[in-house]
Amino acid sequence: MNEPLAQLGQEIEHCQRCPRLRAYGAEVAQQRRKAFAAETYWGRPVPALGDPAARVLLVGLAPAAHGAHRTGRMFTGDRSGDFLFAALHRAGWASSPQSRHREDGLRLSGAYLTAAARCAPPGNRPTPEEFAQCLPYLERELELLPELRVIVTLGQLAHQQVLRALQTRVGFPSVSQFRFAHGAEYRVGRFWVLGCYHPSQQNTFTGRLTAAMLDAVLQRARHWAEAR
Fold first, then answer.
1. Which of 126, 129, 134, 140 is the most core-located residue (most Cβ within 10 A)?
2. How many helices (H) and strands (E) does the chain have?
């Protein structure tokens, strides 16, 4: 990772902007789920993961309380991450189809993975104020990924946060003009923004999001990333 992105990651790890989220994170890390009782939770805001030369950025909602909040790496340690990393591996962007812990050797090539909020939120729902506190981190990531061409938004809330970041950068009248839908594609400034249902168990277990559906979005992302 290049130095500015590494510095940003360290800043995120030590962020204290949202007292509610930091208090919840500390509580979860102390109480722990029974299956992970012997583990030491990361318990802090989670930095992004990926290739500084990435042309594709994937943006999730927030770290899961017993997933990334436990392991310290985005989408690592839960079933949502299992589903996503398997797809990234099929697409040729992840070195492994499985992501278990932050020292397992997994690497992303050509892709970068981040989230709309960097702390695990109660009920998996940050407040608007908490989203706003995290927005500058996403804005800076957009600045620090010079080869970026495509942004895949994993769910409506991530989609809205991405558009808020792009509104600051690109400038357009209203975020609502780019409505979220699975498979939606929008040209926003120099970027393509692609909507995709979040790979949550609620979506993958019910068939709302299948592996084929996610693969199709990633194929479109590759198409636009390589387009001239």
1. 126
2. 8, 6
